[in-house]
Design a protein that fits this description.
Blueprint: E1 5-11, E2 15-20, E3 25-30, E4 33-35, E5 57-62, E6 71-75, H1 77-80, H2 98-112, E7 123-124, E8 127-138, H3 140-144, H4 147-155, E9 160-164, E10 174-186, H5 187-196, H6 206-209, E11 213-218, E12 223-229, E13 232-233, E14 239-241, H7 246-260, H8 267-275, E15 282-285, E16 288-291, H9 293-317, E17 323-327, H10 329-344, E18 350-352, H11 356-360, H12 362-385
Parallel strand pairs: 1-8, 8-10, 11-17, 17-18
Antiparallel strand pairs: 1-2, 2-3, 4-6, 5-6, 5-9, 7-8, 9-10, 11-12, 12-13, 12-14, 15-16
Helix pairs in contact: 5-12, 7-9, 9-10
């Protein structure tokens, strides 16, 4: 079997964040799919080889892990242009959705076919055989329900094939994906690892390592609150909640459509409007700059109050907590509302990551650190086992 390549993938509800190899390649793709047909029409400029493949991901996926096998999909940016685009629904379990697997396989295939890939996989004509050691994660609620074992078993021991159809540069290529190993981590625990360890597994935050802390990870469909003490996640006290930002983003999108007649392609567009550096909370309506502050403030403040209630309830049960870190894309969206609420109410010691990229990439970075640590330990064990034969 060809040598395995490390992949750390956070299948976020808003987008997929992936890190490959020795940190030499990153991917960030909107988590949106649209069912399609094999003969998708190619529009003008798409025919050019210079077109970015990430803007035209069109694939067929064959995998025994899927409920609906051999489906054809538009992925990411291309899917946002479809009128049947699908984003993950609130209330759904990430581990049980075909969409999670389709996005995971698509992301791995995009790494496998990449030109100048430092880790070239064996290739026969138009078929690439790719072998990965994968670090990924699931919401705490799903791990507590034991869904991580079922999710892992769907991936290992099978071959999953991605065929690129009308995709710039990669049309006609097929990637057979196998997993040497798959590690599925609880998301809250991963956030803690990212705070205290660097990529080589060394402690970088000595002040934090023995503190009692909470980590509130706000995602699209769920919120995890990890309770950390004595350098470990307290599995009994840690909680997962079925509350994320997706429903609120959908409500903002719908209200903008009904009030201003402006159709936004996806929740990602709503996030851009809320978080952009200049002209925040403004859209263009018939060419005029128009504020949507009234809509975003009302809906997001309501969600921030619910998130704050979760924090208060968990903190009360863990009264010796010293600090709570808010992480994830949802925390980035709600940051100002949560800060204002906290200043006016309990005044907890809370902190956010001011670097937007650091907050959004936190899970992928954590999975990378964890899977690299696993690989290092596995290689060390192999070296110990290979002892000289005694005469």
């Amino acid at each position: 079997m060809n040598k395995s390549r490390v992949a750390a993938i956070d299948v976020g509800n808003d987008s997929i964040k992936a890190i490959f190899g020795e940190l030499e390649y990153e991917l960030n793709i909107p988590n949106i799919i649209a069912r399609d047909t094999e003969d998708r029409p190619v529009i003008g400029i798409e025919e050019l080889d210079s077109k970015n493949p990430l803007d035209g991901i069109h694939i067929k996926v064959h995998s025994p892990a899927l409920k609906e096998n051999n489906g054809i999909f538009r992925i990411g940016n291309l899917a946002t242009k479809s009128n049947n685009a699908m984003e993950l629904d609130p209330g759904s379990s990430k581990s049980e959705e075909d969409q999670t697997l389709i996005m995971l396989f698509a992301t791995l295939a995009l790494d496998a076919v990449k030109e100048n890939n430092s880790h070239a996989f064996p290739r026969t004509k138009n078929v690439i055989d790719a072998n990965y050691t994968l670090g990924t994660g699931l919401p705490l609620r799903e791990v507590k329900e034991g869904k991580d074992a079922g999710y892992r078993s769907k991936l290992v021991g099978s071959v999953h094939q991605v065929e690129f159809l009308v995709t710039p540069k990669y049309q006609g290529l097929k990637v057979n994906i196998k997993f040497e190993e798959v590690k599925v981590y609880p998301e809250g625990f991963a956030a803690f690892i990212n705070l205290v360890l660097d990529n080589s597994g060394k402690v970088i935050n000595k002040d934090l390592i023995d503190k009692r802390i909470l980590i509130q990870d706000i995602g699209g469909l769920s919120t995890d609150i990890a309770v950390i003490k004595n350098r470990n996640v307290d599995d009994d006290k840690a909680q997962g909640f079925n509350l994320g930002v997706s429903e609120s983003l959908e409500a903002i999108r719908e209200e903008i459509r009904s009030k201003h007649g402006v159709e936004l392609d996806s929740r990602r567009d709503v996030v851009d409007i809320i978080t952009k550096k200049s002209d925040r909370n403004h859209i263009m309506v018939k060419g005029s700059r128009t504020s949507v502050h009234d809509i975003t403030d009302r809906i997001l403040l309501d969600l921030a109050k619910k998130q704050y209630r979760l924090l208060r309830n968990v903190w009360q049960k863990n009264s010796q907590t010293e600090i709570c870190y808010f992480v994830g894309g949802g925390a980035n969206v709600l940051k100002e509302y949560l800060k204002t609420l906290n200043n006016n109410l309990d005044g907890y010691n809370i902190d956010f990551f001011e670097d937007e990229k650091e907050s959004i990439w936190m899970m992928a970075n954590a999975y990378y650190k964890l899977i690299q640590d696993f690989v290092r330990k596995a290689e060390k064990q192999k070296a110990v086992k290979v002892e000289p034969v005694k005469s």
